[in-house]
Amino acid sequence: MLKKLFVIATSAMMAVAGLIAMPQQAAPALAAPGASAFDPGLIISDSVFFDFGSMDVAGIQQFLDSRISSCRAEDPAIDCLKDVFVEIPETPATAEEEIGPCSAITANPAARAAEVIYSVAVACGINPKVLITKLQKEQGLVTSTKPTSYMYRAAMGFGCPDSDPGICGKVNVGLFNQLYRAAKQLRWYGNPEGSFTYWKPGRTVSMRFNPNSSCGTKSFELKNQATANLYYYTPYTPNQAALANMYGSGDSCSAYGNRNFWRFFHDWFGSPIGGGYLLKDAGPETYLIVDDKKYLVTDSRLLAALRPLGPIGEISTAYLDSFVTTGEMTQLVSDSVSGAKFLLVDGVKYSVPDCQIAIQYGANCDVSIAVTSLQLNTFVDGGTLTRLVQTEAGTRYWIENASSRFVVDDLALQTVGAQAITPTRMTIEQVASLTPGTALASESVMFTVAGGSQKAIAAGGQTFLLNSSLVSSTGLEKWFDQAPAAVDLQAIESTLNEEQIKGFVSDSTGATFVITAAGKLPVSDPENWTEQVLAVPDTLLAKIPTVEAVLSTPVIVTSAGNRFSYFVQSAERRLTSDTTMVSQFLSLIGQPKAIEIPQSAINTIEKVGLALAPGAVVKTAGSSKLYLVDDLTNKVLLASSSQATSVSKSKVFTVAASDLSALETRTGFTGVKVQCDGAIYLLDRGILYPTSPAAASEFPGSVFPLSTNTCAALILSERSVGQFIRTNSGLLYLVQDGKKARISSWAHFSTLRGDGPGYIQATNYFASKIPTLGKAPATVQLASLEGIPTGDFGELSFEGTIPELIPVEAPVSSAPEPAVAPEEPAAPSPSPAPTESEERTYRVVSGDSLNEIAQKFGVTVSAIQSLNSITNPNRISVGQLIRIPGSSADAPATPAAEPEPEPEPEPEPEPEPTPEPEESPTVVEYRIQSGDTLLRIGAKFGVSSKALQEFNGITNPNRISIGQLLKIPTATSNTNVAEPEPEPTPEPEESPTVVEYRIQSGDTLLRIGAKFGVSSKALQEFNGITNPNRISIGQLLKIPTATSNTNVAQAEPEPEQPTVAKTYKVVAGDTFWGIARKLGVKSSELASLNGINNANFIRIGQILKVPN
């Protein structure tokens, strides 16, 4: 019996020392992993060991109940652990100098074992799972169905030293005392105030396999305090024999205490390695634990940086709350002992040599987190931190002001003095305090983006991708330095501009350019091109030379090798591949040829359809309907191909039905009169004939308004016309009151025409629109020629709107019915020495006044006024027929009308009579030089090419040769242009009083003039009005009158007239527009200054005033 007790006692003492393997009564629910998983330096994590809140009383009781199905205790006073009741004495908190620390425990005279375990665990901060495992490891109490009193007296093996095992179970006996004393001791280990500090975590230790020193030791790194505490409590590590037979015995040198603890914990609660210094509860937040402090880890990059301190362990909220919340974790840390600073990045620590570098990384030395040396030692040493970083892929970054700047080329490092710095190897994306910055590159360097042929330029802190078509079509590389290697897209992503450079760019001042093969071409009106104008740094643009030209709309553009051309205006492009259509556009806008710009730039302009030029005639395939294109967006329905021939010289273009339907259809064009910019013209053969509103009103049909662009596309006649047409068969007609009357002969025509405008060579269509009414009278009062337009359509504006008809009131003629003219037409000037009783007629020409006419015929002004019932001598008009009294007549005499000449049947067309010049021209000689043409020579001498041809007997104007001597008919010799002669200044009869008048609705210059007793011509000249039909409501006119009008505001001083610097004498072959071009002045200013309403009515020898 004594032997048996001795054996039992000996076995119990050996179990306390961990020298025997505890028998396994049942297979574990979750078997421990194999021996290879056992780490002697990390048996249990600190986070698991000290998690006092991992179980509550009910949980502990449930677990104890699950270990034993039925208790078979032989002594009724000694129950199994799950059923035992013990006393918990009133226990104060440990003092500062005592072993512990543990908080106070409230007394309970009859506490169950679960309550005792829970109370001790919470008070001393030890995981109740650890206490349960220790109870099993020391005495097997948890699973014992027949516990003994000794097992309770030495429940935790506390007070059982190896040096005196005999006292085991004799001191600190009982379940509460064993648990409480053991827990206090487990918390005390490692306290620097105590004696158990020789096994320091982070150091290599040598641990015995057995109390017998001859069994040897094992050296390993001790990784944490909890494992050290287990070794302080049981100072042996299992040998390989013990680990090889995890649930059995090893050899004579095996010790099993810590092996069994690891095995039991695994079997019952899972891995004891539940987390290192990174802990969390059921919530989402993760904390770094440093001693008794916790720091919130807010970024995944910080977790990656702290990876060596993990894994993340999930602990109870109570345990987590026991740590002091100190702030947020940063990647900049310091050694709590030495104060050395480190930047932690992706599990690597980089030594920070000074705080200035830390600042560049966006870190603050004043708020670095102090960590233990043990924790720092777990990180890989990355060396000293520098501002130049190189990734594993070889990409380099310059660290500046908390940003990482991708290094594009080596030369860029010289700009920051980094060419000699050794790069720090680092995963740059894992630095939480850095944001991607602008690329660091030599200014305006071009490089290729890795993985393709995409080109980019780094400039002004940005990276600009280049359209590949732009690069290839312009040879853009020739202006930029090239980086030696391709750059990864991710490396420049942070500085990447969202938009590609496609062609249109602007500088810091807003000046816009389009990049071409020749350089950057300035664009004067970017708003009329595209919204895709990319603002780029001036340094980038400075690399590209500036083209000495300006691009503006409207314009025809194309790209190199492209069969299409594009008409661009109002930020829209219309395309065509028809070269004739392109030519019509070029002619319309006065552009020599299409301008080449990159296709990538063209593609940024909104495409709206086919380019159809104003004035073009179009149709669809299979349809006979013809249309005249009006502006860009309208089409005018034409009645027939004959009308098409009449209105335009354009060829007929066949277009797709969809393109034609895109144009708005206009109808109602059935006549021969059109309105352009408010002025009326006759239109035939695609030629606009200027005529007066009064003359136009004699033609039948309504006026059809055309857009200014369409009018500009048509041919403008250099001569104005009146009321005469000549048909294809050679017949002449007078048009009056909407009908045409046959003119019998050229002599008849000369009589009717007088010195007025000639005829229109009419097409059959034009002639057919005018009904025929018998024969023309022998004489006729022709319509007033006042208000003939100049044909100046101004600056073209493609608005795409349908023009509205502007009412134009024909001037009312003040002349009386004309006298019957003789059979032969009168000469422009009176025949010399008329008989006293002879009465003549005279047609007023430009520049005439009654005073001049009276002097010319030797009669008085009053006699002419009386005979012609002219109340106001200032109111005569060009073309007006005036009766001239005989020189001795005191009263008007009306001669009898002479009989009308017999019309000649079907007269053959004769050449139009050429008026005799007033003076014989002086002839000079000129020898033809290289490059000369008759047109150029004529322009040089102020004569027409036709006059040169006739004067020199040249039958073919294209057959002239260098050195050929030409005779030039001019008014003066020795000069190419007639010398200006001073114009005699007439003495004013009376200085008029000037009043002001504001134009009202319904007013015309004729009506205003009649109201104030002045001529419309005087009003036009006095107010500088070039077109009498272009006045507007509210416009202020100055009225020259002899007396003031009380109903009109007093006039202000008359504005100064343009200073006349010289005059010009009209010579043979001159035209009004040719003179204006020759003198470099506007035709409108020349007409206004000289009071010319009809630009075709100038005569040889006439003196013109020339404006400065």
Notable traits:
1108 residues, alpha/beta, five-stranded mixed beta sheet, 34 helices, 55 strands, 23% helix, rod-shaped
Gap between N and C termini = 148 Å
Count of discrete alpha- or pi-helical segments spanning 4 or more residues: 34
Strand content: 15-25%
Strand order of the largest sheet: 8-5-6-7-9
- The parts where pLDDT drops under 50 for at least 5 residues are 1-17, 22-29, 813-837, 888-921, 971-991, 1042-1061
What is the average of the pLDDT values?
Answer: 84
Radius of gyration based on Cα positions: 57 Å
Which sheet architecture does the biggest sheet show?
Answer: 5 strands, mixed
The number of distinct β-strands equals: 55
Structural class: alpha/beta
Q: Estimate the helix proportion, in percent.
A: 10-25%
**Shape estimate:** rod-shaped
